[in-house]
Amino acid sequence: MTSTEVDEFVSDFSRFYILMILYEGASHGYNIISRFRKTLGKDISPSLVYPFLQNLEKRGLVRYTVVPIGEKERKVYELTEKGRELCRRLFKRFAALVSTAIEPSLNICAHCGCKVYEGGHVEVINGKEVTFCCKHCALSYKRERKEGKEEPLFT
């Protein structure tokens, strides 16, 4: 990947994250920059944030109100209904991509059936490794099998 391609990728991710912040609630530019730094541990350039917000406004995806904050007045941006709908569509698409990417790495708890991405609790039962989400599910699974009340839910 070239440096330009990396910059474009990071910029696209940054824009996506700005939309996530706005989806959570109204925010001014400096707050977006601060949340970006606090949550992701990365700085984001105001030269990316403010033009993006202006572009969203031109497209009718955000609106702003001028609000006094401390001694300054700030533009507080919030998504319009059209902007919220765009975010819902983007988030669904992103969730599908992430799900496709991590699906091969998922294990299913043999007791409760929840999906386990990392970690989990593995025990050898009857010579076979069995994955559980936690030691409590493992204990319940073994107790139920010992008592003969239930067959395994998942294999």
Protein topology:
Blueprint: H1 3-24, E1 27-28, H2 29-40, H3 46-58, E2 62-69, E3 72-79, H4 81-102, E4 107-108, E5 115-116, E6 121-125, E7 128-132, H5 135-147
Antiparallel strand pairs: 1-3, 2-3, 4-5, 6-7
Helix pairs in contact: 2-3
Uncertain runs with pLDDT below 50, 5 residues or more? none
What profile does the largest beta sheet have? 3 strands, antiparallel
Q: What fraction, in percent, of the residue positions are helical?
A: 40-55%
Query: Count the helices. How many?
Result: 5
CATH homologous superfamily identity of the largest domain: Winged helix-like DNA-binding domain superfamily/Winged helix DNA-binding domain
The portion of residues forming beta strands comes to 15-25%
Which series of helices and strands comes N to C?
A: HEHHEEHEEEEH
Q: How many structural domains does the protein architecture include?
A: 2
CATH topology of the largest domain: Arc Repressor Mutant, subunit A
Task: Compute the CA-based radius of gyration.
Answer: 23 Å
Structural class: alpha+beta
Strand order of the largest sheet: 1-3-2
Q: How many β-strands, per DSSP?
A: 7
Average pLDDT score: 86
Shape: elongated
CATH class of the largest domain: Mainly Alpha
CATH architectural category of the largest domain: Orthogonal Bundle
Describe the structure.
With 155 residues, the protein is an alpha+beta fold. It is built from five helices and seven strands, in the order H-E-H-H-E-E-H-E-E-E-E-H. It folds into two domains: 100 residues, Orthogonal Bundle (Arc Repressor Mutant, subunit A); 42 residues, no CATH class. Helix 2 packs across helix 3. The longest helix has 22 residues. The mean pLDDT is 86.
